[in-house]
Amino acid sequence: MPNALITGGTSGIGAATAQLLHSRGYRVAVTGRNPETLARAREELPDGVIVVPADSASLSDTTQLMSVIEDRLGTLDLLFLNAGVFTPAPIADVTEESFDAQVGINFKGQYFTLQKALPLLNDGASVVLTVGIGSSRGAPGASVAAGTRGALLTMLPSLALELAPRRIRVNAVSPGAIDTPLFDKLGVPDEGREMMRSRIPFERFGTGEDIAGIVAFLGSDEARYITGQEIVGAGGYGLSA
Q: At 182, is the pLDDT very low, low, confident or very high (cuts 50, 70, 90)?
């Protein structure tokens, strides 16, 4: 039975991925830092999914997380580094606090979670990073988030090469506009959503399940010869001239 760890797995894309992997026979652990979403995950995710409070920006939390994973699962076959924050603001209004918070989770947190998970990853395991199309397609107020996510993409080839001797594959998934609780959290108005939808060739927002399917594929044996790659799940957004 394969084992998977999903950071940022208590809601949205992470929770959808936990549901899918569990249905495919994985033993799954998810992390989160919000008490409300942690409680909801314990109620809504399937029985057997391990819910662990952990802040990806905290190296001590990450060290403790790996102790829990080693105790409960032993080893890992899939590591989905999905934790992230998005605090939109024009550059003139960005504070050092908000800058450091996004760097701490989106980049530093992902990097050191992978580092601390290395002893638990089986040879031939799969690592999937959540990046996002915002790293290559700009939006006002998204400079910090784009920079932190884009940093993951730039280190992808190096990580893939470094872990190739163990046949550990490192790939990225870049979601487009996905209908998750983040929309509500950001307060995107109806007219804003309609404008975004009108720019998607598939004429709909993505779902957490859409991205979960990509992650499950990258973690499967069908993707055994794929590493160092980015798969964009955006319904064709950004293809038009």
A: low
